[in-house]
């Protein structure tokens, strides 16, 4: 065959595709050739010379990682010449390497140690002192902090350049490089640019020696004392596979587990360092009940009895419909399912929701629509098959760092071009990509422009309503007509007053672009899809069935319940409004913090005040928890097991690393105990039992055992492929937002790349990376009112005001300001009006 | 804006002259060096922005080439070869003599900013060792007397 080559390695023949290296061929035969600088995700640079092998008729030894395999090649890996060659390289690597293995954190998992043992000479022949790099006398052990959470020791570095290549070639950031030459080479950041790549932690994981060490693991524990437990990151929807390294009930570090269909061994710093919050001592340690206005520690028995009694009381007095359930999008499928049984069966209400960070929540119909689109989604590894990748309403690099990594690969390999439409320039646009910035919440108008441009209509009249230029949109439309297009519809597309229309427009655009083009919906939240499918929204019963009479009846029968509530049910926004008006008497809040994060702090605070009885289950004491009647300590993610569905639609399971810390309890256990006190007769031994019940009753999850999903995950077939007929011919552009003169700026908000709600604030590293909330403003706007970088400003809206430090940022659209939401102390939501779609603010210098 | 208008124009021309942006870094380094006589981080950053490569790449490349001074140097950059042939012919003595005469150590600049003294590796002029390069000129077969005369001349040149 023309595209295959056959060669002989150590006397064995092997056939590999043309273009493979000798190393690939040897790996296929199971022959291990030692390497330092080689990495399957990076281009070979043959920097370390460790993989030298002998090739017949070649005068010199060749590097197996870079030399292409050729027909008829005869390779010797273990000949004297090759073995001595590698021994010489090893000796050379060790000439200046310090003998500090006993104090080096890499000791025990160090490739240099391993290769030195198996390939190196036992003795050093030189007698000169080792070369020692001292950056700054004030640090002991010659280590310098190279980034906010990473230390660099140049003496240990063997210059394999894996770190700089990971950061440059894969993450596309330019903040770590190799300076000087020869033995003086050091890896360093640019003098004036901090090493802040959001993938910086990977350099620590893939450093073959102890040159790069994470601050959180430095001098903490020897690696061989730790156990590893497979887990899945909870901090965004990308579903990265992680390994928890722990000892007893202490979590030491989080590494990527390397699932080459998901994160490919590269996780972001939020997941790697932020996940360490699970280990923080500020966690809630005991159940607490409010007695005489104060939260008092009580026993679990007392707390559960109290909650059950109070809920029963309210059910008797006002009926089950007067109780609301607010969960969060990190609930596992099992928790979400039990949450739904708790609300619908035991309490008898359809007031339950897992979303609380947006006000314009998708309706039942829209959720079905999203699921039907996701039934025909594109998995991460296929992004590169598309010529054009369009992001609409998505701050993809911030909300989906790892998904964006796959898009970057598609761009860097030259396969795809990227287009990003958002109300500000996303970080993403720093890389070769085109961008359009529309007005905040201008998704509808923008999509309408794009749709009309694709149809060939004149869009000159409507582009001003979106705040974009007609020629830009027309150019994009022209580009999309060539080749296949993948459209990512971000959170801002469906969490939008016009969410339904937006999704219809996106579908219409896809249809105009032809069958080959696809749409992916982005979900922010570890288990957004799973929560919908397991019944944690009012309108959709478990396993994705419509909450209509027949389905309810069937579900009640399968549960052995008499009857389920016939009401429509309320979502979080409606529940909070109803509670604030006194219509909802009790709230059961599971891992949610509406006071801290619901867009409209006023209404959330009022709801907490007005409701007679509030139960909050949380890992840390949140703003919501402070005003609750009962606070129950919730286990953190390493302490229980379950399954999650990522934004890719991949079902994955995470394992329990250790028993719950302090007296906290898993979400499912807390709910089950309360349910049993209220007369629920079934019992589960653990999430596996709940999963079996889900599997037995669901078409989507049938024949998937809890163990079966453990390591690689499964792309689930959601079977929502009903074609929806939509008519968008009558769609008209809506008016552009007009800020009133007293509040001239439009407020936009969103997550920060390093933070996930209040949780990551309890991870010590995250504070070093991103010390606090700031307000971001375009330089042009700032200059016009004489405000500069680092000034302290007051932001005020009709609802409230905040004092923040300002950062001028070219990426923010003129006329808008941006505040990241994930800082509890910033209380961004005091500014928001829970009635109006957009919030207008003014900024003054203090 | 440290870089002059003229150099900026030349840098901008480099941008699309080569198949990759990276390839324009070397000529850009020369342009910046010609203007300033050294490569400072601020100048490199500016040049990187003009030719469209990352600031990091520009600084990395500059740091690789030790022949480019990274800090401001004297008007006369004296680079004495101390490699094998010159060393055999007394380069070390020559360095000592220069240090004494100029009152500075290797790698330093005289307080008046006229002379900077470096030692460098082989400059390919072994047949005429010991030798040194001052700015772009070679001075060969050096003796103490020759050095005295040269330094005298340069000092005088400064005075007038």
Concise overview:
The complex is a heterodimer of chains A (846) and B (160). By secondary structure, chain A is α/β, with parallel strands linked by helices.
How does this structure look, described?
The complex is a heterodimer of chains A (846) and B (160). Helices cover 28% and strands 19% of the residues of chain A. Chain A is an alpha/beta fold. Chain A has a seven-stranded mixed β-sheet with strand order 15-14-27-26-25-16-17, with helices on both faces. In chain A, strand 1 and strand 2 (12-17) form a beta hairpin. With 160 residues, chain B is α+β, with helices and mostly antiparallel strands. Chain B has helices at residues 5-14, 25-36, 41-51, 55-64, 84-88, 91-102, 144-159, and strands at residues 76-81, 115-120, 132-134, 137-139. In chain B, strands 2-1-3-4 form a four-stranded mixed β-sheet, with helices on one face. The chains are: A alpha/beta (846), B alpha+beta (160).
How many separate domains make up the residues of chain B? Answer: 2
Strand order of the largest sheet of chain B: 2-1-3-4
Helix content of chain A: 25-40%
Query: Separation of termini of chain B?
Result: 32 Å
Strand order, largest beta sheet of chain A: 15-14-27-26-25-16-17
Relative strand content of chain B: 5-15%
Number of strands of chain A: 36
Mean pLDDT of chain A: 90
What fraction, in percent, of the residue positions of chain B are helical? 40-55%
Radius of gyration of chain B: 18 Å
Average pLDDT number of chain B: 91
The H-level CATH homologous superfamily of the largest domain in chain B, spelled out, is Glutaredoxin
List keywords for this structure.
heterodimer, A: 846 residues, alpha/beta, 6-stranded mixed barrel, 26 helices, 28% helix, globular, B: 160 residues, alpha+beta, Arc Repressor Mutant, subunit A, Glutaredoxin, 2 domains, 4-stranded mixed β-sheet, 7 helices
Layout of secondary structure:
The complex is a heterodimer of chains A (about 850) and B (about 160).
Chain A: E1 4-9, E2 12-17, H1 22-29, E3 52-55, E4 62-63, E5 74-76, H2 80-94, H3 111-119, E6 143-145, E7 150-153, H4 162-170, E8 177-179, E9 186-188, H5 201-206, E10 212-214, E11 227-232, E12 241-247, E13 250-256, H6 269-274, E14 288-291, E15 294-297, H7 300-318, E16 323-326, H8 333-347, E17 352-353, H9 364-374, E18 388-392, H10 396-399, H11 401-412, E19 417-422, E20 434-437, H12 443-455, H13 463-466, H14 470-480, E21 485-489, H15 491-494, H16 499-513, E22 518-521, H17 528-533, E23 540-541, E24 545-546, H18 549-559, H19 572-580, E25 586-590, H20 594-597, H21 601-610, E26 613-618, H22 623-626, E27 630-633, E28 642-645, E29 650-654, H23 667-677, H24 687-697, E30 714-715, E31 745-750, H25 764-769, E32 774-777, H26 779-784, E33 792-796, E34 801-808, E35 816-820, E36 840-845
Parallel strand pairs in A: 1-5, 16-17, 16-25, 18-19, 18-21, 19-20, 21-22, 25-26, 26-27, 31-35, 32-34
Antiparallel strand pairs in A: 1-2, 3-4, 3-5, 6-7, 7-10, 8-9, 11-12, 12-13, 14-15, 14-27, 23-24, 28-29, 29-30, 31-36, 32-35, 33-34, 33-36
Helix pairs in contact in A: 7-23, 8-23, 8-24, 12-14, 12-16, 19-21
Chain B: H1 5-14, H2 25-36, H3 41-51, H4 55-64, E1 76-81, H5 84-88, H6 91-102, E2 115-120, E3 132-134, E4 137-139, H7 144-159
Parallel strand pairs in B: 1-2
Antiparallel strand pairs in B: 1-3, 3-4
Helix pairs in contact in B: 1-2, 2-3, 3-4
């Amino acid at each position: 065959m023309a595209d295959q080559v056959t060669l002989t390695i150590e006397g064995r023949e092997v056939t590999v595709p043309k273009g493979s290296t000798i190393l690939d061929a040897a790996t296929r035969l199971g022959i291990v050739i030692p390497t330092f600088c080689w990495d399957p995700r990076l281009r070979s640079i043959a920097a370390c010379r460790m993989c030298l092998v002998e090739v017949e008729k070649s005068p010199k030894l060749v590097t197996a990682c870079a030399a292409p395999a050729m027909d008829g090649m005869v390779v010797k890996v273990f000949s004297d010449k090759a073995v001595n060659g590698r021994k010489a390289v090893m000796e050379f690597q060790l000439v200046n390497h310090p003998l500090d293995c006993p104090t080096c954190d890499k000791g025990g998992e160090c490739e240099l140690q391993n290769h030195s043992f198996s390939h190196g000479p036992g003795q050093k022949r030189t007698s000169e002192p080792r070369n020692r790099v001292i950056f700054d006398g004030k640090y002991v052990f010659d280590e310098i902090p190279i980034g906010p959470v990473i230390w660099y020791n140049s003496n240990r570095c063997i210059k394999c350049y894996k770190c700089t290549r990971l950061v440059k070639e894969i993450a596309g950031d330019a903040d770590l490089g190799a300076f000087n030459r020869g033995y003086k080479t050091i890896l360093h950041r640019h003098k004036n640019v901090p090493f802040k790549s959001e993938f910086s932690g990977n350099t620590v994981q893939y450093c073959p020696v102890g040159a790069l060490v994470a601050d959180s693991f430095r001098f903490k524990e020897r690696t061989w004392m730790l156990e590893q437990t497979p887990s899945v990151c909870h901090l965004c929807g990308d579903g990265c596979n992680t390994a928890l390294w722990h000892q007893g009930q202490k979590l030491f570090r989080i590494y990527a587990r390397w699932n080459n269909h998901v994160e490919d061994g590269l996780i972001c710093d939020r997941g790697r360092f932020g996940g360490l919050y699970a280990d923080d001592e500020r966690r809630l340690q005991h159940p607490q009940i409010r007695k005489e206005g104060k939260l008092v520690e009580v026993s679990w028995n007392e707390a559960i009895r109290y909650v059950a009694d109070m809920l029963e009381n309210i059910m008797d007095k006002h009926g089950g419909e007067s109780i609301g359930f607010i969960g969060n999008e990190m609930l596992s499928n099992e928790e979400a399912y039990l949450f739904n049984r708790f609300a619908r069966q035991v309490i008898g209400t359809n007031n339950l929701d897992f979303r609380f960070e947006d006000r314009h929540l998708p309706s039942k119909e829209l959720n079905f629509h999203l699921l039907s689109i996701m039934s025909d989604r594109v998995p991460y590894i296929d992004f590169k098959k598309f010529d054009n990748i369009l992001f609409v309403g998505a701050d993809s690099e911030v909300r989906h760092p790892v998904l964006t990594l796959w898009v970057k690969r598609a761009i860097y390999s030259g396969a795809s071009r990227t287009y990003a439409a958002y109300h500000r320039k996303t970080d993403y646009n720093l890389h070769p990509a085109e961008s359009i910035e529309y007005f905040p919440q201008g998704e509808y108008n923008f999509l309408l422009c794009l749709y009309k441009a694709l149809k060939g209509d004149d869009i000159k009249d409507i582009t001003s309503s979106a705040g974009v230029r007609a020629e830009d949109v027309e150019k994009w439309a022209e580009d999309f007509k060539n080749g296949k297009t993948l459209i990512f519809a971000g959170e801002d597309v469906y969490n939008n007053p016009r969410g339904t229309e937006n999704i219809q427009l996106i579908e219409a655009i896809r249809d105009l672009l032809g069958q080959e083009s696809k749409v992916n919906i982005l979900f922010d939240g570890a288990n957004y899809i799973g929560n919908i499918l397991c019944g944690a929204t009012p309108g959709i019963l478990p396993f994705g069935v419509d909450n209509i009479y027949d389905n309810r009846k069937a579900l009640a029968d399968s549960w052995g319940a008499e009857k389920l509530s016939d009401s429509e049910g309320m979502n979080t926004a409606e529940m909070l409004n109803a509670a604030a008006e006194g219509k909802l008497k009790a709230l059961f809040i599971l891992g949610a913090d509406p006071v801290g994060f619901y867009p409209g702090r006023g209404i959330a605070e009022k709801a907490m005040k007005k409701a007679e009885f509030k139960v909050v289950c949380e890992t840390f004491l949140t703003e919501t928890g402070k005003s609750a009647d009962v606070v129950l300590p919730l286990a953190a993610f390493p302490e229980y097991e379950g399954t999650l569905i990522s934004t890719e639609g991949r079902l994955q399971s995470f394992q329990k690393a250790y028993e719950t810390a302090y007296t906290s309890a898993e979400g499912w256990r807390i709910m089950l105990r309360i349910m049993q006190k209220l007369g629920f007769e079934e019992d589960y031994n653990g999430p596996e039992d709940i999963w079996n019940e889900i599997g037995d009753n669901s078409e989507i999850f049938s024949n998937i055992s809890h163990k079966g999903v453990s390591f690689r995950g499964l792309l689930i077939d959601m079977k929502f492929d009903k074609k929806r007929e939509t008519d968008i011919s009558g769609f008209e552009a809506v008016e552009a937002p007009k800020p009133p003169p007293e509040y001239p700026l439009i407020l936009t908000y969103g997550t920060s790349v390093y933070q996930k709600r209040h949780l990551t604030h309890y991870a010590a590293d995250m504070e070093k990376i991103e010390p606090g909330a700031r307000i971001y403003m375009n330089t042009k706007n700032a200059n016009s009112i004489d405000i500069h970088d680092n000034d302290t400003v007051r932001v005020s809206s009709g609802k409230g005001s905040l004092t923040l430090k300002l950062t001028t940022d070219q990426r923010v659209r003129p006329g808008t300001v941006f505040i990241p939401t994930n800082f509890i102390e910033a209380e961004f939501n005091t500014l928001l009006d829970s009635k109006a779609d957009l919030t207008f603010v003014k900024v003054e210098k203090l | 804006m440290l870089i002059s208008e003229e150099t900026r124009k030349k840098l901008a021309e480099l941008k699309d002259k080569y198949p990759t942006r990276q390839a324009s870094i070397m000529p850009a380094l020369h342009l910046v060096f010609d203007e300033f006589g050294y490569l400072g981080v601020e100048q490199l950053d500016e040049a990187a922005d003009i030719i469209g490569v990352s600031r990091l790449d520009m600084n990395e490349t500059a740091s690789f080439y030790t022949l480019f001074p990274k800090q401001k140097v004297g008007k006369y950059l004296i680079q004495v070869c101390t490699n094998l042939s010159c060393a055999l012919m007394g380069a070390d003595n020559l360095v000592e003599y220069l240090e004494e005469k100029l009152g500075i150590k290797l790698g330093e600049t005289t307080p008046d900013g006229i002379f900077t003294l470096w030692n460098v590796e082989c400059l390919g002029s072994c047949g005429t060792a010991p030798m040194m390069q001052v700015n772009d000129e070679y001075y060969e077969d050096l003796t103490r007397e020759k050095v005295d005369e040269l330094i005298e001349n340069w000092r005088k040149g400064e005075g007038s």
